[in-house]
């Protein structure tokens, strides 16, 4: 008998607004978990299974560059398609794109669930031998309260027959495609595909879900996801400091904190000589015991001539993420007589935050003069001092 083709739709077209409540600028599916973006993890969970025929990702129209920068390359990964305004609409776009390939079975997966296990996926597929649809679910273990105003309890519900739904949800392709097409004509939205199947009269089974198969929805879910990944590794806080000097030379602007500030001189250096970013880079590298900026970007290497120092800062941030850590906060003080820094601080916080994928509220940029003393007072150069606090898995 011919083996059934199994296609996967990963819906990643959401904006992740709830998860961005911590000020993060990256949509949740593009944020890193221990150095690997959530969406890359989700897709990889399926590409790692040899019996999966193809994986199709449904992305937001504004995220094409972000998706491309994941750099995912696999013969079984189809070019992404664009989703719609709701999860339901995005799934339908995925189903429409797969229809010409005539899949036997389709698994529909939230991009925001990076921990679907081979066991759960296999159980969903196995249940499709006897049912039209199947989903992983976990029996509810908390007592369930109903409230009319979100505050005062109205009733306590019987939880004995309740379960919390997860993904992937699996279906026979033709049946779920036709159910979704019909559901799209209704004024209401369904929150999962199993509900659409139920509404269409299909028989849907539940298989045992997995406690770690969480949906990243709120900012604190990232911390939980990191805990899952590190096998509950003990995290510890590390502190690093950085210090940098640069001399002035004739010019018309300085780069500071990733921002170009017009000035009657420029800072002399191999790269763009951004003292603030160099001090921050060294502070992060110091916190994780990774040497200093010169080790990673030697001045003797011509490719860094005139380079934007955001490259150095991003490299340090990437090393933290790869080690399963996260930057808690950064603090930099720039010491100079001129130019005046205060009005540029918000722009610097924005550039640094975007470079490292952290909220600007975690970054302090301060400035002071040297009261006209010494080489800074004579405007021969400037200095920056930084400290970084980083949370890292304990390894010793
Ligand atoms: N228009 C949409 C909305 C959601 N999704 C996807 O559906 C999954 C589950 O949705 P949810 O967790 O609610 O994600 P978001 O809609 O992105 O979150 P929020 O509601 O906080 O903005 C996510 O992988 C999300 O990317 C989608 O493909 N298209
Ligand atoms: C499909 C789902 O993951 C099942 O739990 C969930 O319903 C999707 O979340 P949303 O917030 O309703 O989009």
TrEMBL record:
A single GO molecular function term of this UniProt record: metal ion binding
PROSITE patterns: ISPF
Domain annotation 2-C-methyl-D-erythritol 2,4-cyclodiphosphate synthase: ranges: 238-390
Site (Positions MEP for the nucleophilic attack): residue numbering on this chain: 159, 215
Tagged with keyword Oxidoreductase: no
UniProt-annotated stretches for the region 2-C-methyl-D-erythritol 4-phosphate cytidylyltransferase: 1-237
Cofactor: a divalent metal cation
UniProt name for this protein: Bifunctional enzyme IspD/IspF
Organism: Devosia ginsengisoli
């Amino acid at each position: 008998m011919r083996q059934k083709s199994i296609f996967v739709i990963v819906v990643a077209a959401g904006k992740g607004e709830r998860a961005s409540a911590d000020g993060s600028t990256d949509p949740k599916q593009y944020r890193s978990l221990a150095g690997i973006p959530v969406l890359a993890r989700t897709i990889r969970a399926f590409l790692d299974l040899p019996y999966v025929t193809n994986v199709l990702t449904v992305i937001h129209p504004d995220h094409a560059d972000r998706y491309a920068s994941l750099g995912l390359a696999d013969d079984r990964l189809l070019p992404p398609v664009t989703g719609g305004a709701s999860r339901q609409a995005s799934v339908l776009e995925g189903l429409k794109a797969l229809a010409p390939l005539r899949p036997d079975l389709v698994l529909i997966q939230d991009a925001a669930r990076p921990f679907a296990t081979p066991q759960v996926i296999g159980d969903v597929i196995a249940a499709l031998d006897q049912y039209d649809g199947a989903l992983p679910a976990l029996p509810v273990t908390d007592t369930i309260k109903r409230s009319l105003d979100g505050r005062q309890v109205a009733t306590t519900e019987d939880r004995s027959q309740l379960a919390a739904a997860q993904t992937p949800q699996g279906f026979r392709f033709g049946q779920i495609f036709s159910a979704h097409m019909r559901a799209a004509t209704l004024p209401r939205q369904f929150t999962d595909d199993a509900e659409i199947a139920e509404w269409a009269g299909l028989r849907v089974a539940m298989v045992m879900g997995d406690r770690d198969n969480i949906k990243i929805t709120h900012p604190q879910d990232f911390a939980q996801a990191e805990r899952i990944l590190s096998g509950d590794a003990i995290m510890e806080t590390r502190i690093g400091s950085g210090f940098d000097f640069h001399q002035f030379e004739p010019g018309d602007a300085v780069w500071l904190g990733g921002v170009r500030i017009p000035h009657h001189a420029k800072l002399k250096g191999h790269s763009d000589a951004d003292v603030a970013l160099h001090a921050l880079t060294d502070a992060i590298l110091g916190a994780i015991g990774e040497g200093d900026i010169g080790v990673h970007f030697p001045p003797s290497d011509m490719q860094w001539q005139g380079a934007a120092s955001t490259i150095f800062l991003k490299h340090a941030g990437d090393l933290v993420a790869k080690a399963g850590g996260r930057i808690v906060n950064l603090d930099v003080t720039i010491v100079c007589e001129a130019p005046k820094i205060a009005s540029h601080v918000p722009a610097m916080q924005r550039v640094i935050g975007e470079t490292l994928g952290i909220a600007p509220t975690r970054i302090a940029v301060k400035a002071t003069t040297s009261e006209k003393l010494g080489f800074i007072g004579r405007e021969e150069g400037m200095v920056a001092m930084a400290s970084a606090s980083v949370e890292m898995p304990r390894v010793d």
